Amino acid sequence: MRLFSATLATETNTFSPLPTSLEAFRKSVWLRPGEHPDDAPRMCTAPLFVARNRAKAEGYTLIEGSCFAASPAGTVNRDAYEFMRDEILDQLKAAMPLDGVLFGLHGAMVAYGYDDVEGDILERARAIVGPECVIGVELDPHCHLTLKRVSNADIVILYKEFPHTDVQDRAEDLLDLVLRTIRGEIKPVMSVYDCRQISSYPTTLPLMRGFVGRMFALEGKDGILSVSAAHCFPYADVPEMTGRMLVVADGDKAKADALATRLGEEFVSMRGKTMPEYHSPAEGVKIGMEFNDAPVVIADPADNAGGGAPSDNTTILRQLIEKDAQDAAVGPIWDPVAVRLCFDAGLGAHFPLRFGGKIGPASGQPIDANVEVIGLARDCWQSFGPTKVPLGDCAAVRIGGVEVVLIDNRTQALGLELFTNLGIDPLAKKILVVKSTNHFMAAFGPIAKKVLYIESDAPLSRTFTKIPFTKVNRPVWPLDETTSPGLIF
Predict the structure, then answer these.
(1) Ramachandran class of 324: left when φ > 0, alpha when ψ lies in -120 to 50, beta otherwise
(2) Which end of the chain is more exposed for a tag (fewer CB within 10 A), N or C?
(3) Domain named Microcystin LR degradation protein MlrC C-terminal: which ranges (predicted)?
(4) How far apart are CA 324 and CA 38, in angstroms?
(5) Cis ω on the peptide bond leading into residue 475 (within 30° of 0)?
């Protein structure tokens, strides 16, 4: 038995002012065949990582393709996408004949000329391997679950958790089902229900926690192989941007259709009930400072690099400084120039520094302050579930009672290492401000005595009706009150 695996992934915010170039992939995940580290999966590489670890025990040969992934940002350069795509497809051709293919994709990648990147690469892969080869795909739930990609794959599985702590577990599930299909033990069929809605669905909150639990309980029983919820990625202006339910069943399309419809209708019934309460910057900082326990974790989803934002907005930081907050830490602020200046100044230096507020109006005004450099570290990483995410070179500066983590490789707040790399103890802080939507909860949730969410003036508005969509197929809630959810595949 012969399997092939590769990754091509990013999450594209088509409204972001930060174009995604080949260099963005080189700075994040750029691994040629055989170069993937043995310690942990990287962004969207879990299918290859899992398949490598199980090859000997399962008795198959794994042919490794390239793995390319970039931090979320704006639309991908067309030449860059086609270069990476064609490299992987050439490797796929060279690996033939194959019994199975495992793709680690994100599901919300957009390139100039390609609204459905994943559909494009899967259609081309299917043309190469033919109808008998089993194609399995792992996607992020913040994806566009397009009909083109579903029709060109045999098995599609999405992470269930948000924060995405289960990427390796779902890759294990995918490999199990692909191997069982190749061995003739199952005949997967897929059904998709279009919920016609845009929202956010943190699985750390009770309503989605219960929904995910019911999804898990359905799998492995009565011929149901897998159940996935596509949350959608609301910062992409593409036609099929909507929440959808996906069910994979063993040979029984009617059963898959019925379950996808039932779960899809339940998902629709949750409209407007799945997101946390949001505070203004002034209100959120005030509540955090007055709370009588620590640490208080304050999230800034609107400046989340994981959604394509620059991560250089200064609004909440300015509130902390103006209110003379003590024992507070903020991170990360992406500012490569400021990081370099801190290294030039050296540990313990006191000097005037301008940082943040660089990319555009939604970044706010830069901070001008006399800072103390309290931490410097090269080539840093942070953990996120089973994966490792690069931070690049990092610097920490202190302004009064506020400490700020500056990074040169743009990414969101994920692991405690964001602070501990630089000698900042998160447990010793009264307030921790993290630029993240909900992924921070995996590491920061367990230590938080209180979690607050702020709607800042950064670019990722949580009020989806404010986003200027032009390509999205309408009607879709909450842009439209009346919608027509239903089975589409």
Answers:
(1) left
(2) N
(3) 298-471
(4) 46
(5) yes
- Domain boundary among the residues 239, 269, 299 is at 269
Say whether both 218 and 306 belong to one domain.
no
Q: Using an 8 Å Cβ cutoff, are 49 and 82 in contact?
A: no
**Residue 251 vs residues 216, 229, 294, 305, 321: alpha-carbon distances, Å:** 20, 21, 53, 41, 61
| CB distance 474 to 480 below 8 Å | yes
Q: Could you give the number of structural domains in the chain?
A: 2
Is there a domain that residue 411 lies in?
yes
Dist. CA 298–CA 435, nearest whole Å: 9
The whole-angstrom separation of Cα 260 and Cα 218 is: 11
Judge if 337 and 215 occupy the same domain.
Answer: no
**Of 241, 199, 174, 186, which Cα lies nearest the Cα of 474?**
241
Q: Do both 193 and 72 map to the same domain?
A: yes
Count of CB atoms within 10 A of residue 215's CB?
Answer: 18
pTM: 0.95
pLDDT digit string (tens) for 367-419? 999 999 999 999 999 999 899 999 999 999 999 999 999 999 999 999 999 99
Distance separating alpha carbons of residues 240 and 232, to the nearest angstrom = 9
- Indicate if 334 and 373 belong to the same structural domain: yes
The residues, any chain, with a CB within 8 Å of residue 73's CB and separated by 6 or more, are 10, 12, 13, 16, 18, 19, 20, 24, 308, 410
> Could you tell me which residues are beta bridge partners of residue 382?
389
Residue type, 276: P
Residue type, 442: A
Domain of 396, in residue numbers: 278-461
Residue 486 lies in a domain: no
Reduce the DSSP state of residue 276 to 3 states and report it: coil
Mean pLDDT of 110-129: 98
Cα 357 to Cα 459: distance, rounded to the nearest angstrom: 12
Task: Report whether 370 contacts 389 (CB < 8 A).
Answer: no
pLDDT in tens, 32-75: 999 999 999 999 999 999 999 999 999 999 999 999 999 999 99
